[in-house]
Amino acid sequence: MMTVSKEQIYRQLAKIAGPDGKSDLISLGLVSEIVIRDGVVAFALNIDKERAAELEPMREAAEHAVGQMEGVNRVNVVLTAHRPGGSAKPRRAGRSAIDVPGVERTIAVASGKGGVGKSTVAVNLALGLAKLGLKVGILDADIYGPSMPRLLGLGDTPMPESRERVLTPPMVFGVKAMSMGFLVGEETPVIWRGPMVISALDRMLRSVAWGRLDVLVVDMPPGTGDAQLTMAQKVKLAGAVIVSTPQDLALVDARRGLNMFRRVDVPVLGLVENMSYFLCPHCGARSEIFGHGGARGEAGRLGVEFLGEVPLDRLLRERSDQGRPIIVSDPDSPHARIFRDMAAQLWAGLEADNHDNARPFPEIVVE
Question: How far apart are CA 79 and CA 59, in angstroms?
């Protein structure tokens, strides 16, 4: 199969009329940087929030036009809404944020409570971003309950130190990883007060030889306590992804997580509904064990992107426990495709925001 180029896609999109019905998408500057990986194309269209529903046919037309091109297997097109000119809210003055050396963008994957599969989502999103050809790292910021060593099959990996006490993160499945779990045993409790936790997180961010990374994915601790708030305040985050299950109780906690990022002016890049439904491997019947669609509805209500639904599945759980993430151990499975699509949509949104850096602050910041 021939490969498609960005230039070919831009030319194709130049045939699609923009919101004014006269000029095209390209001449109006509405198309973000295009990401192409293994026949999957992802990009965003930058529009005004008030016209999002009205311009959905334009998004569909762009998706259809690119999807018909030779060399394209799948297309992800998202609408990124912005406030009208002059109404943008600047980031709060006085917020001191850490620039992680060598890291272009840092993304937090968070949840309002534990037990929703946040770490599994974070790992597979990071690996999905790596499959887009990006240089990716993942930081396990859950000091009290680190899970990355097990999820990445690194439980017995020693953590070497390079010169000047700078930690060297192991490379696994094409991503660099750092976790407190590399420094303590799996069954060893970390009994630290808040200041010690913050100090450890600071070291894992700034005293690690990350090298040059396009994206650092931070698997945040669950909840909205001191460690979470400090991370959100102190690290220069490109945005946050919130993971929830569909039931009302989990969504209440997810709202708390959204509000925490809102208070420190970190944009919410999207919501993920994990354990969305269960498909019986024997009869194929679908069971919505925890309900269904709650996260999608919440995303619509709050005006943030909905990144996708991840089904509850035994294979996904088994591969996670074995340290063989589904996206690399079974890349053609439906779950792997879901994570790849979410990663492509997430990156397209980030590229759109970067491409549109001179425009007002994105509407996806929750008010």
Answer: 7
Average pLDDT over residues 314-338: 89
Report which residue type is found at 201: L
pLDDT band at 366 (very low <50, low <70, confident <90, very high): very low
d(CA 148, CA 94): 33
User: At residue 271, what are phi and psi to the nearest 5 degrees?
Assistant: -115, 145
DSSP state letter for 62: H
For residue 179, the cross-strand partners are 140
What percentage of the chain reaches a pLDDT higher than 70? 81
Ramachandran assignment for 173, one of left (phi > 0), alpha (psi -120 to 50 degrees), beta (any other): left
Token pair of 247 as six digits: 């039931």
pLDDT tens digits, one per residue of 126-168: 999 999 889 999 998 887 778 888 999 887 666 556 566 788 8
What is the pTM for the complete model shown? 0.69
Are 37 and 3 spatial neighbours (Cβ–Cβ below 8 Å)?
no
SS (H, E, C) 278-337: EECCCCCCEECECECCHHHHHHHHHCCCEEEEEEECHHHHHHHHCCCCHHHHCCCCHHHH
